[in-house]
């Protein structure tokens, strides 16, 4: 029998709570839901008013993994949705605005992915992102070196950068922006990626071509495009273990010396939130937003 629970006055059917989703650690679906409930305040702040793309893995990362943007079948009528403009035609997408909606989405077993803009200004980015992706044998250690260079370069243009792990192999760098057309942000991000390639010769590439990325850090600037999304802070990832896209301090980035040093799993995050608070909270403050040069 599927247990029914009530969250903020909404009745939810939470299924298969004992199902192991991460066989490497025995982490169950019930533990996934508990994790999201525990970090909800911080996660919801970064999901607010951003249309959600679902990367679902209902049978764990070794099962079927599929990406969806449209409202899933069976979505309760109390989950907020919005029509999102797209070049191929408008789509109706989910907005996760409250704890009940978050737990409903978590019950689907999903990674949370969101764009760099909000629904009140579609296509007007309020943050800039770089996805630093290491090509083997490079690791997150090399990503940290590139992140430090980009941090200084962004500071020269008046922007404060913040870092989080991707929850996979790499690192994400983010900066708050005054609302700016996504095309302009994408062009600026590409310029900085090209600069990084020149300045860190032999260690960085700004091009997506796979055979150019061996041993280098790919500075992916393209996720600033209006149609693209990035893993939301605090989301679990569909990996062998319940790793999280976790905010990190610049001290941790500077001191990173091994690939495992910046791997954070679900049980690590609540103590980090107690210690640091939300390290990405400045991204939510319009007063911290910078302007492109």
TrEMBL record:
This protein's record includes keyword Ligase: yes
GO molecular function, one term: ligase activity
Pfam family, one: LigD_Prim-Pol
Signal sequence segment: none
Domain DNA ligase D polymerase: from-to ranges: 28-279
Gene3D superfamilies recorded: DNA primase, PRIM domain
Sorted UniProt keywords: Ligase
Keyword Ligase: yes
Protein's recorded name: ATP-dependent DNA ligase
Organism encoding this protein: Streptomyces albiflavescens
